[in-house]
C-alpha cells in the first residue's frame, strides 16, 4: 500500500513537472519580445476646440503641465460624464492646475484597458500623471492623498515614484456583500499576485494611481499586458526598477456597469499572472535598465 502511494506521488510530481514545462514552453514561444508601442497615424493627433488636427505631445518631451489625468473609456456613455464633471470641477478649483481641459485620443482598434492607458500616458504633458477609471468609483479629491503619499517617498530615485490608491481597508465590508464564490476568487487572485509577481501591495487593481513623469515613462514603456492584469505587470516592473511605491487608502464606491465577467475575467487574469512570471523567468520578456525608448 505504501509502495503504491509512493508511486502515485512520484507520478503526480512528474505530471506536474511536465505540465509546468509545457506551460513554460507555450508562454515562451507565444511571447512578443518587446512591448507593442505602435501608433497608427490617426492616433498621433487630436482635434482642438476649433476642430483642427493637432499633433499629440510625447511623454519623453519636457512637461508643460503640472498634472495629466488619463481616463480609459470604452462604451462609457453613462458613467463617464459624471466622473468628468467631478474631476473637472475639482481641478478648476485648484488654480495651480488651470488646464486646457480635455483631449480625446481615439484609438483605431480596441487595445484593452492597459493599452488605452498606455497610449494616454505616452501623450501626457504633466509632471505628474494620474490614471483614473471612467466609472468614478474613487472620489477624485482623493488625489490629494496620493500626492501626499508621493511626496512622502522623497527623495525620489531618478525622479521616479508611484502612489497607488488602495481599497484593501474595505476588504471586510466587501466580503460581507459578496458571494462565497466571488470571495474565493478574490483570495485566489490575491494569492497568485503575491506568489507570482508583486510583494507588499495589497490592492494592485485599484484604477487610481499617480506617477511621476519619469516613473510613468519607465514602467509603461516596458509593459506587455494590455488587458485587465496590466496593473500587476506594471507594479512588477516598478519593483524590478526599485521605484518606490506608496499604497494609499482611498474612498471607493461600487458603481454599476462593470465590464468584468466574474469567473471568466478572473480566469483570464490568473492565466496572465502565470504567463507574466514564466515569461520573465524564461527570458522571453526582459527588462532593460534604460527606460527611454523610441
TrEMBL record:
Q: What class of enzyme is it?
A: transferase
Q: How does it sit in the membrane?
A: Single-pass membrane protein
Which GO terms fall under molecular function for this chain's record?
dolichyl-phosphate beta-glucosyltransferase activity
* Signal sequence interval, chain numbering: 1-16
Q: State what protein this is by name.
A: Dolichyl-phosphate beta-glucosyltransferase
Could you tell me the superkingdom of the organism this chain comes from?
Eukaryota
Q: Which CDD domains match?
A: DPG_synthase
InterPro entries named among the record's database cross-references? DPG_synthase, Glyco_trans_2-like, Nucleotide-diphossugar_trans
Reaction equations catalysed: a di-trans,poly-cis-dolichyl phosphate + UDP-alpha-D-glucose = a di-trans,poly-cis-dolichyl beta-D-glucosyl phosphate + UDP
Q: Which pathway does this chain act in? A: Protein modification; protein glycosylation
**A cellular-component GO term for this protein:** endoplasmic reticulum membrane
Q: Which family does it belong to?
A: Belongs to the glycosyltransferase 2 family.
Q: Which UniProt keywords apply?
A: Endoplasmic reticulum, Glycosyltransferase, Membrane, Signal, Signal-anchor, Transferase, Transmembrane, Transmembrane helix
EC number(s) reported in the record: 2.4.1.117
Subcellular location per the Swiss-Prot or TrEMBL entry = Endoplasmic reticulum membrane
What residue stretches are annotated with the Glycosyltransferase 2-like domain? 87-217
Amino acid at each position: 500500500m505504501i509502495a503504491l502511494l509512493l508511486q502515485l506521488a512520484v507520478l503526480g510530481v512528474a505530471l506536474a513537472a511536465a505540465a509546468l514545462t509545457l506551460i513554460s514552453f507555450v508562454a515562451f514561444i507565444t511571447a512578443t519580445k518587446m512591448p507593442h508601442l505602435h501608433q497608427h497615424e490617426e492616433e498621433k493627433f487630436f482635434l482642438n476646440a476649433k476642430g483642427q488636427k493637432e499633433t499629440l505631445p510625447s511623454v519623453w518631451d519636457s512637461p508643460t503641465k503640472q498634472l495629466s489625468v488619463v481616463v480609459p473609456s470604452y462604451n462609457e456613455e453613462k458613467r463617464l460624464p459624471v466622473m468628468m464633471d467631478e474631476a473637472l470641477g475639482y481641478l478648476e478649483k485648484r488654480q495651480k492646475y488651470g488646464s486646457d481641459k480635455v483631449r480625446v485620443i481615439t484609438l483605431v482598434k480596441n487595445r484593452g484597458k492597459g493599452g488605452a492607458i498606455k497610449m494616454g500616458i505616452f501623450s501626457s504633458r504633466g509632471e505628474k500623471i494620474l490614471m483614473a477609471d471612467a466609472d468614478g468609483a474613487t472620489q477624485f479629491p482623493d488625489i490629494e492623498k496620493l500626492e501626499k503619499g508621493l511626496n512622502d517617498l522623497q527623495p525620489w530615485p531618478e525622479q521616479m515614484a508611484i502612489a497607488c490608491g488602495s481599497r484593501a481597508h474595505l476588504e471586510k465590508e466587501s466580503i460581507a456583500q459578496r458571494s462565497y464564490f466571488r470571495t474565493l476568487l478574490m483570495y485566489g487572485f490575491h494569492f497568485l499576485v503575491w506568489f507570482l509577481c508583486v510583494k507588499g501591495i495589497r490592492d494592485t487593481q485599484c484604477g487610481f494611481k499617480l506617477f511621476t513623469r519619469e516613473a510613468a515613462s519607465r514602467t509603461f514603456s516596458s509593459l506587455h499586458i494590455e488587458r485587465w492584469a496590466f496593473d500587476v505587470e506594471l507594479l512588477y516592473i516598478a519593483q524590478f526598477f526599485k521605484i518606490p511605491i506608496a499604497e494609499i487608502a482611498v474612498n471607493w464606491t461600487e458603481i454599476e456597469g462593470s465590464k468584468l465577467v466574474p469567473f471568466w475575467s478572473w480566469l483570464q487574469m490568473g492565466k496572465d499572472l502565470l504567463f507574466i512570471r514564466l515569461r520573465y523567468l524564461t527570458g522571453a520578456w526582459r527588462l532593460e535598465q534604460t527606460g527611454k525608448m523610441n
